[in-house]
Design brief:
- By secondary structure, the protein is mainly alpha-helical.
- About 75% of the residues lie in helices and about 5% in strands.
- The protein has four helices and two strands; from the N terminus they run ββαααα.
- Strands 1-2 form a two-stranded antiparallel ribbon.
- Strand 1 and strand 2 form a beta hairpin.
- The longest helix is centred in the middle third of the chain and has 41 residues.
- The N and C termini lie far apart (about 45 Å).
- About 5% of the residues are buried.
- It is an enzyme of class 5 (isomerase).
- One of its GO terms (molecular function) is chorismate mutase activity.
């Protein structure tokens, strides 16, 4: 439950699962930061998709294939090295988002 006052909106323990007011404040602040980070990540993904479209267009126009599998393997390796197995899954999702938009 969120309580709205004349000054602001206050998040309560029911919203966060916290058991103290201090924890509610920490969680609320951290969630705001996560929301801002998510907005930035989404923007970066959209930018990556646009850059990928430029690359695909250039490759296709020059007579090449839409997808360069060796490059995709490099990307998968990079994410896997940085983030482990979940990084591979993340990279696969990014590659899927960026393929075939041309």
């Amino acid at each position: 439950m969120t309580v709205t006052t004349a000054d602001s909106t206050r998040t309560t323990a029911a919203d966060t699962g916290a058991r103290t007011a201090e924890a509610v404040d920490v969680i609320t602040g951290a969630r705001e930061r996560i929301d801002a980070l998510d907005d930035r990540i989404i923007g970066l993904i959209q930018e990556r998709m646009a850059v990928s479209a430029v690359i695909q267009e250039a490759r296709i126009t020059s007579g090449g294939r839409r997808v360069n599998l060796s490059r995709e393997m490099e990307v998968l390796g990079h994410y896997s090295d940085a983030l482990g197995k979940p990084g591979t899954t993340l990279a696969m999702t990014l590659l899927e988002l960026c393929r075939g938009r041309v």
